[in-house]
Design brief:
By secondary structure, this protein is an alpha/beta fold. It has helices spanning 3-21, 39-47, 58-68, 85-88, 101-110, 137-143, 165-183, 203-208, 218-221; strands spanning 29-33, 52-55, 73-76, 94-98, 115-120, 150-156, 194-196, 213-216. The chain has a single domain (3-218), classed as Alanine racemase (TIM Barrel), CATH 3.20.20.10. It has an eight-stranded parallel β-sheet. The structure holds pyridoxal-5'-phosphate (PLP). Residues 6-223 form the Alanine racemase N-terminal domain.
């Protein structure tokens, strides 16, 4: 399938989910996750009108950056190794995986401007998942005040891999509730307006529950996407 066809499908699903939940589709940004695909396929996504691309490895990001430059806005969505920060920090606008103070310190040191960060939260509690425990999120965010280049744009989570709709919904709702708690702190460096949640499998539910950024790989740019 062409990326453009997949995108039309996904956009119409997002519109439907917005209608269900009384939201406006303009509130939802689609990030094409290009980590599994070629530079050509990423290029096709940009030509289809996708303005946001996500990668989870420095090599992938840099090789695509060589071809596409800053035409798309770049999102780093995967676990970030501290020593890799310097390779990508001046290429990305958003970091979706801030999960420890040592990483915040390195980002702060290597960037000379504010980096839009998502604090990654392990809502589902699965051991295999990265991210901060929900109970520790508020204290973690307060600790970020010391870093002048860190801006907390929002929270991010990866839902458990399941088709159990109620479990997915509960996960997304918990992230939304946590976002509201952060907003009530009224921290200048942590407006926390965004919610990065929803992937190929679960973006419709994520949008119904308040996602403002969905990170979609296989259903959008996968060569054999089934939508
Ligand atoms: C790979 C990945 C995605 C996209 O996954 P799909 O299931 O292919 O849509 C989204 N978010 C993160 C953090 C990822 O690593």
């Amino acid at each position: 399938m062409k990326v453009l066809e997949n995108l039309k499908h996904i956009r119409s699903n997002i519109e439907e989910a917005c209608k269900q939940s009384g939201r406006s589709p303009e509130e939802v940004t689609v990030i094409a996750v290009t980590k599994y695909v070629s530079v050509e396929r990423a290029q096709e996504a940009v030509e289809a009108g996708i303005l946001h691309l996500g990668e989870n490895r420095d090599e992938g990001l840099l090789s695509k950056w060589d071809h596409l430059g800053d035409k798309p806005t770049w999102h780093y969505i995967g676990t970030m190794q501290t020593r890799k920060v310097k390779n990508v920090i001046d290429k990305i606008t958003y970091l979706h995986s801030l999960d420890r103070l040592s990483l915040a310190k390195e980002v702060n040191k290597r960037s000379n401007q504010k980096v839009k960060c998502f604090v990654q939260v392990n809502v589902s509690g699965e051991e295999s998942k990265h991210g901060i425990d929900p109970e520790a999120v508020l204290d973690f965010i307060k600790d970020l005040e010391q870093f002048e280049h860190i801006q907390v744009e929002g929270l991010m989570t990866m839902a458990p891999y399941t088709n159990d709709e109620s479990q997915l919904r509960q996960c997304f709702r918990q992230l939304k509730a946590l976002q509201q708690e952060v907003q009530q702190l009224h921290l200048e460096f942590a407006p926390c307006r965004e919610l990065s949640m929803g992937m190929s499998n679960d973006y419709r539910i994520a949008v119904e529950e308040g996602a403002t950024m969905v990170r979609i790989g296989s259903a959008l740019v996968g060569e054999e996407a089934e939508v």
